[in-house]
Amino acid sequence: MSGVKTPVVGVVGGGQLARMMQQAAIGLGVPLRLLAEAADSSAAQVITDTVVGDYTDLATLAAWAEGCDVVTFDHEHVPAGHLERLAADGHQPRPGPGALAHAQDKAVMRRRLSALGIGCPRHAVVADPQAVADFVAAVGGFPVVLKATRGGYDGKAVWMVHDEMGVSRVLDEVPAGVALLAEEKVDFRRELSALAVRSPSGQQAAYPVVESVQRQGICVEVTAPAPDLDPDLARQAQRIAMRVAAELDVTGVLAVELFETPDGRVLVNELAMRPHNTGHWSIDGAVTSQFENHLRAVLDLPLGDPTARAPWSVMVNILGGSAPTLFDGYPHVQARDPRLRVHLYGKQVLPGRKVGHVTAYGDDLDDVRARARHAAAWFEGQPRQRLGLSRPQPD
Ligand code: ADP
Prior knowledge:
Blueprint: E1 9-12, H1 16-28, E2 32-36, E3 50-52, H2 58-65, E4 70-73, H3 80-88, H4 97-104, H5 106-115, E5 123-126, H6 129-138, E6 144-148, E7 158-161, H7 164-173, E8 180-184, E9 190-198, E10 204-206, E11 210-215, E12 218-224, H8 231-247, E13 252-260, E14 266-272, H9 282-285, H10 290-298, E15 312-319, H11 330-336, E16 341-344, E17 354-362, H12 365-380, H13 383-387
Parallel strand pairs: 1-2, 1-4, 2-3
Antiparallel strand pairs: 5-8, 6-7, 6-8, 9-10, 9-11, 9-13, 11-12, 12-15, 13-14, 15-17, 16-17
This protein binds adenosine-5'-diphosphate.
């Protein structure tokens, strides 16, 4: 990709991930070209070369890609056939369709990881109530987890079911033609995430393994590195991420969401092939952020050092709450904690929506965590409720 001209990186999807890629692209001096769903989307506000259009429309996608040397993504929803077309036209989708299939379809992902001998929850594709009943019997009874194989995010197509009534409700809710995956409910100690970055030349970098806390399927808090994680298990998690990245031929960031079991194993929950919420801490807390490394990888440049800059970093998401304007949070938060890092996404504040995040880092985990939690709660307009918590409680 060397030549007289700096390559243009196309990004499909105008969310906060594309917005934060732009922040890294500024430092690298690499132009981004965005295909956004709306002119006021989070990334369209900051990327000057933006086309507003529908990525599911092949003509729109192909015309936009004419201006790109390489194409990457803010989300994993571009249909496989469209990705094939981009590849055939020489626009180099990174990651490519073969890799992305595993992030688009949970059944494909489970099949592949099982074939590689990588630990996953017990699972089965289930088409009717009898198949669910057979699976429930095989795993020793309810509860089980049902998931749409395609199209889910932030827990939106994941249901914990406790009885046959619950199964019927899910089967009624899921549109015809959407396959369902049944999984054993893993009694996990906590959720971990291992991020690897891989370039087409095969270079890899692995970030420290982090702990993530989810509430109602949404990531709310990430601690880097995961406190008290057995170093052998941490290495194993990093090896899983790097092996999956290599076997699936991933380009860019691969996030492997994991369950740590009480008996000291890790099971893969989910794969994402793009910068990931569990890597946001790296903007301020690592030598090279996941966004910069993602861009380096898709351009097949040497990767940057993923090492943490401080013993602890804690990232807390700002979810839309009672405060209508996030800007109002600045005076207090900035006066109280001059070392805090704040990232707001330019999104309209809607209840529960991810509208920004804060990261604190330092030597003392309790202090770092308290600072990040306080700031996020303040932006959300509910400082007192959140301040009393020693850690976020699952609802
Ligand atoms: P999405 O793709 O929408 O993010 P996930 O498959 O990651 O959905 O599931 C969302 C959350 O649901 C997980 O972070 C976890 O907290 C919970 N979950 C998912 N699968 C299981 C499982 N097999 N056992 C226990 N909890 C699960």
